[in-house]
Amino acid sequence: MRNSRAAAPHPRLIYLLSVAQRRLQRWMAARPESAVTPAQAGLLFILGKQDGALMGEAGAALDMGPAGVSGLVDRTVAAKLVERRADREDGRAYRIWLTPKGRTALAQAKTSAAEVNAALTEGFTAAEIDIVARWLTSIQDKFPRRSDEQNGADQ
Q1: Which long-range contacts link 112-116 to residues 24+ away (Cβ below 8 Å)?
Q2: Could you count the other beta carbons within 10 Å of the beta carbon of residue 132?
Q3: pLDDT tens, 36-64?
C-alpha cells in the first residue's frame, strides 16, 4: 500500500507563504490605528530592546541589507520616531535612538502586534503554532541571508 501523503499533490508552500505575507502586511498597514508601517514597527521593537543600536545591528535583526535599513531609518527619522546619531567611538558608524514619539508608537505597536498575533493563532493549538513557528524559523536556517546577498551580487 502506498503512502497516501506521498501521492497527494505538493502544497504550494511558496505561493501560500508569499500571499499570506503580502495580505498580512497590507492589512496591518491599512489599520486606522497604525501610526507606523510594519517595517517601522519592527525597527521600534528592536530599539525597545536595545535603544541606541548600531544601524548594522538593526539591519541584521530585521534581515535587511545596508541600503534597506538606511532607507527605513531615513523614513523613521522623518516621522520623528527615531534619531540617528554618530557613534562616539567610531565616527563612521551611526546609532539609532527612540524619540518620545517613538516610545509612544512602540507601545501602540506592541498592543497592535498582540491583537494580530491573537488573530493569527485563533483556532490553532499551542502545539500547532509551535510547529508553524519551527517551520518558519527553519526557512531562515535553510536559506541564510548571507548566501542570498552573495547570489544576488553574482547576477
Answers
A1: 112/28, 112/31, 112/33, 112/34, 112/41, 113/41, 113/45, 116/24, 116/28
A2: 12
A3: 888 999 999 999 999 999 999 999 999 99
Give the whole-angstrom CA distance, residue 99 versus residue 91.
Answer: 21
C-alpha cell at position 17: 507563504
Task: Please tell me the pTM assigned to this model.
Answer: 0.79
Query: CB neighbours of 147 closer than 8 A, spacing ≥ 6?
Result: none
E strand or H helix at 77? helix 66-78
Q: Are 66 and 56 in contact (CB under 8 A)?
A: yes
Q: Return the DSSP state at 143.
A: S
* Residues 32 and 70 sit within 8 Å (Cβ to Cβ): no
Helix, strand, or coil (residue 86): strand
